[in-house]
Amino acid sequence: MKSKIGSHIVACLLGTLVIYGLLKLESFIYRIRNESYNEELQELAEFMISDIVLLILFFAAFAFIQFILVRPVFSYLTNQGSLSRKNFVYTWLVLSISTGLFGGILFGDMRLGIKDVIESIGIGVAMFLVYYAINFITYFKLIK
Q1: For 87, which DSSP code?
Q2: For a surface tag, which of 54, 72, 128, 132 has the fewest beta carbons within 10 Å of its beta carbon?
Q3: Cα–Cα distance, 102 to 42 (Å, whole number)
Q4: CB 76 within 8 A of CB 86
Q5: Which helix (H) or strand (E) holds 26?
Q6: b or e along 113-131 (b: 16 or more beta carbons within 10 Å of the residue's beta carbon)?
Q7: What does the pLDDT look like over 28-73, one tens digit per residue?
Q8: Rounded to an integer, what distance in angstroms lies between the CA atom of residue 142 and that of residue 3?
Q9: What is the CA radius of gyration of the chain?
């Protein structure tokens, strides 16, 4: 696939599916470890979002990040001819840490304490490390 926009969309979709799968796995593990989790979910059943809507929301958020942040950075580095392996790793780390930090601060709840915010930041950075790794690998495989 030589279309760069199409490659960005496919990479974003694959990264979204991987992150969604990891979140489902984390929820499954938490459900096994915490016996009262099912009761908590039943109490919140009226506020539950269906999986397909959640997946669409994830894709919309990741696509926004992809086309506002990642695509211009790749275009700039490619035009400068400086997209070496070292710069690629730096770009991956900076994007992962910055978006994970922003997401963790945005979604962490200070009312639950600083531990919740730090945990949200850690989970955000870990998820974005995986997302961008899948995303970048897919994108570069598709444009070759």
Answers
A1: H
A2: 72
A3: 31
A4: no
A5: helix 4-33
A6: eeeebeebbebbbebbbeb
A7: 887 777 777 677 767 766 666 777 887 888 888 888 888 888 888 8
A8: 9
A9: 17
